[in-house]
Amino acid sequence: MIYQVRSRVLKVDKPYITLLALFLPTFIWAYFFTVPAEDAVILYEYSKNLAERGLITYGGSSQPIEGATDFFWMLIIAAMRKMGINEFAAALTLNFLGLAIVLILFNRTKDKIWICIAAILTPYFYASLSGFSAMFFVSIYLVSLKLFFAESKWVYLSILFLCLLRPDGVAWGAGIVILKLLKAQEFSKLKTELRNLLLYFMIPSLIYFAWRVSYFSELFPLPFLVKSGQPRNLGIFYYGSFRTVVLVLVPLGLTFLIFARQRNLFLQFALLFTPPTMFYSSVVLEQNVGNRFMAPLFFGTVYFLFVKFGLKALTIAVVISAVIGFKSTVGTTLSLVDSNNENVPNVARDLSYIQGRMLITEAGRLTYYSGWISEDSWGLNTPQYAKKLIRIEDVSPNKYDLIVAHCDLTLLKTVIVIDSFPDRSWLNQCKVLVEAMKQNKYQVYLLPYRRDTSVVTRIKGLLSSQGVLSRDSFGCTRHDVYAVSPKFDDSVELVNILRRYGAIKFQGDLSTVGDAVCGVVNK
Length: 523
What we know:
By secondary structure, the chain is an alpha+beta fold. It contains 22 helices and eight strands.
């Protein structure tokens, strides 16, 4: 019997292994020829500190900092670093494993082929190549759905893992839990479900939450405080976030309406996917590279459609989603290919040869690659700036040797007026930082975000000019502000590093639009 089972598995696995083998080179290519995304690297910083110092913290701090919300993701990557695997390689390995799990959940070879097509034609897979947990998280969510459809008690353990992997797993697991309880119509079955929920989810969750509060002295993760604390512009929602969710949900919802006939299916669909859509519409989707936050919505709905209606529904959903998300997929792919052309990682690596302290708005690669003591002015990784907007008096040349900011460059040329009680916004943060630079006589340089020599950069410029990709102003290039303290002992070496990558000293007659410098400038 064992032999028969093994033979059957091997027979099924033949095309499965072939499909996985076709994807493997993309992960290898990503490791050697791309740079992981900004927010992905923030998590690597926490993993590195945990592996090397046994402390969950950020930017050289000696205190625990709750900025790494993806607890299990951080824990697994830290463990892999202990085994000699660096953080980016660990993330790519886990995402490859996630893709393998996803393919297992679809039965026939042609089903798996369509999932591979879905991965290629939508942006979510490319977010995984950028170092995020997208495909790994999706795989755990699909396993949870699989266990739910199989009416397994282990679904609660799977949801627990999902929530510890990323805190928004609560939104994805909520509908499953509600449906499990609603399906238990008899009291004895309800009692069993409540016992399983308590044993496999609630008690472990409460233990983890109690430990987390004790360790970090914070009720909520810093990114949650920051992303949910900004002024809303669509009732309880943010317009940009709501629009992002709708663009993903509409083709999937339309496909469902084409095939659905039973009332209970409408209830299942609504309860499974309403909690996450409501949640993501009510938080600011910062660093949503490759629409990564929507990956479980896409693959989860596709899996639901496949289980309930078969391959035809899956195919229609994939095709419509690919057409609607074409711009996002193209933009994500080109940005990934062009990531190695960005200046920030190289500047950060060169900064590692000198030591200093910096204040930054871009909190990932600068900190991770430089090894500098760093504080995040937006508060995602710095508790003192998470609950209130940074103030001018918080910034001084004695405290920060370097300030790096991604801001509207016109602020450098205007007289800044800061309200007595300013709202927490990116613009107001930039106003504070720029005014602090002026008052403390920092030397201000503008560093191009990427080198302009790559073929991909030219392609993106061409697509922008044709309206395929959006861009604030064609012919202008993004520059970030690098302000050097006049009291920094290694200021000359620091300036030389910046000039090496094309930095220009700020002058009032520079032509700027938003965060971009326009026209030809003397470097």
